[in-house]
Amino acid sequence: MDLGLTGKKAIVCASSRGLGKGCAQALAEAGCDIVLNGRTEAVLEETRKEIQDRYNVSVLSIAADVSSPEGQRALLSACPDPDILVNNNGGPPRRDYTELDREAMIDGAIQNFVTPVELIQAVAPGMKERGFGRIVNITSLSVKMPIEGLDLSSGARAGLTAFLAGVCRQLAPHGVTINNLLPGKMDTDRLRGGFERAAQQTGTSLDDIRAQQAAEIPTGRFGNAEEFGQACAFLCSRYAGYITGQNLLMDGGLYPAAF
Fold first, then answer.
1. Fewest 10 Å CB contacts: which of 64, 109, 139, 220?
2. pLDDT of residue 29
3. pLDDT at 11
């Protein structure tokens, strides 16, 4: 399917690996020029070369912390007029709410609420002027279904969701959409780290932990970055101009609700 994205420019935050990389790959496959972002230069360069060689599009990489003003300026300098913005950032570490101090809460809010809002503030005016824009925020299943120890991440991302519910309707008349992708249990480094913690705490093998958690999902498996990226690319496509303010769950049916 031709998504109508050939020649479009996309900034994909935190995209050197995992779900962000999946989104960058899918957008590159659709013909977008990509600006990648990550903190580890070696990994970032490997991803840049892989995507550029495979899809024959322009791929730039910016090694920076997207939560910092300096990192945001570097991204926007590399691509001052993006057609697509994929907001993504690492969440705060798993921690019981009783262990959170003010500094940790502020850092979590900056990572998963303030940063995406700042980037949207920066790119939305140009998108409005050009009459086209696609903004996709990678949030989490935990926005809808509490996950123990991820209260700070869930709260910040839920706040972002509510904040943008109004913003998206201001931008809709100008051809600019904002949607959220909510990953469930995806086969990423973060999920595998959770397996390791669970194995240490329970004395159960990693294979058994993995099998137990996969069995809780109606599809019987974990999601992957490739299918996640393709969903992102569709939300950015010419076919998704009538979709805005939505939360797309990608959880294999784990969230047990009809609405």
1. 220
2. 98
3. 98
Residues in the chain predicted with pLDDT less than 50, given as ranges, are none
What are 138's strand-pairing partners? 181
Residues paired with 85 in a beta bridge = 11, 135
Distance CA 190, CA 41 (A): 20
Host H or E run for residue 61? strand 59-63
CA distance 177 to 144: 21
CA distance linking residue 24 with residue 137, whole number of Å: 13
What is the distance between the alpha carbons of residues 240 and 228, in angstroms, rounded to a whole number?
A: 16
Let me know the angle formed at the C-alpha of 181 by 179 and 187, rounded to the nearest 5 degrees: 165
The residue type of 92 is P
Cα distance between residue 29 and residue 2, in whole Å: 10
Say if pTM beats, i.e. exceeds, 0.70: yes
pLDDT of residue 61: 97
pLDDT of residue 236: 98
**79: nearest Cα among 95, 93, 59:** 59
